[in-house]
Amino acid sequence: QLWIRSCPKQNDSFKEDTMNVNSPPTLMKLASQRLLREEALAISALKELPNMLFPMMFEEAFINGHTKILKAMIPLWPFPYFFLGMMIKNLTLDTLKDVLQGIDILISKVVHSRCKLKEIKWKNTDYGLQGIWPGSHEVDGLSEFMEQKQPDCRVKKELKVITHLKLMEGSLDECATYLLHWAQQRKDSIHLCCRKLKIQGLINATVIEIFKIVHADCIQELELCCLCLEDLEFLNPYLKQINNLIILKLDEIKGTVSMGESRNIDEEKVITLISQLPTLQHLEKLCINDVPFIEGNLKECLRCLKKPLEILCITNCYLLQSDLDYLPYCLNILELKCLDLTPHW
């Protein structure tokens, strides 16, 4: 007997990916690539370049390291908004310096720009330049699918640069460090707006330096990892300044760095720390993972919320029966869309 088995059905996303791989480059892409082969010609042609070619040409120049062209394109950017998107994964310090030099030329008004650039999103997002910018110079804001009703940090400067910062083992990477210093030197015209801050491991001096430059009201997502109670005590005054927090993640927060201290001292610190927690007026998502001091203190922790949560995740934590009994009576979780109470195994 001969058995013939049909091929499994392929989902639409697979077909779309296959089409993208096999499809030939568009005329716009070919035109951008051809122009980039001659640097001097490309730079001289920028003033006459059609707006629709700018995003694609910038992306090609960014990926292929045409830094002089990048620097020349920024002052002539024809749209009010600029997204770096997924390209930031390929960011090098040299590329960053050239792009920032282009911004310096823009704010110095040495070159007459086609459109007033209002905002640069210098962060890793799921969308790039393509398909977003054509036509966006005709409207004042972003398209509806990108607009979100979020708290405003209310800082008005000539140009807003939105970014994410990661403080890993007490230090920033070289690009983030350079960006911070660049923004600090131009604080009269540049507003560095940090939407997401991740702190994994803590060096106090670095945190102090960051909050001298970054406005705490800008931070909407905060992730604290691999810290101890002493670190949270140090951070607490800064947490009280973050009034527009939407997402808070606590991951691997341990009791103390001092191995000789007793559990009674830890409990005293926990009670003091929880009593000093800031009021979170806009919080929508709270994720707590591997945080021992939640045990028996869940009620006190949730009291700091000012509005009902949409997402609550408490994973790899020990909870007492009193913690679980409190949940049905907590007004701040009555409107939850997602609840995850995965226990500690």
TrEMBL record:
> Looking at the record's lineage, which domain of life comes first?
Eukaryota
Keywords, alphabetical? Leucine-rich repeat, Repeat
Q: Which InterPro entries match?
A: LRRC14/PRAME
Q: Which GO terms describe its cellular component?
A: cytoplasm
Keyword Repeat on this protein? yes
KW Repeat (keyword) present: yes
Q: What is this protein called?
A: Uncharacterized protein
**Annotated source species:** Mus spicilegus (Mound-building mouse)
What is this organism's lineage?
A: Eukaryota, Metazoa, Chordata, Craniata, Vertebrata
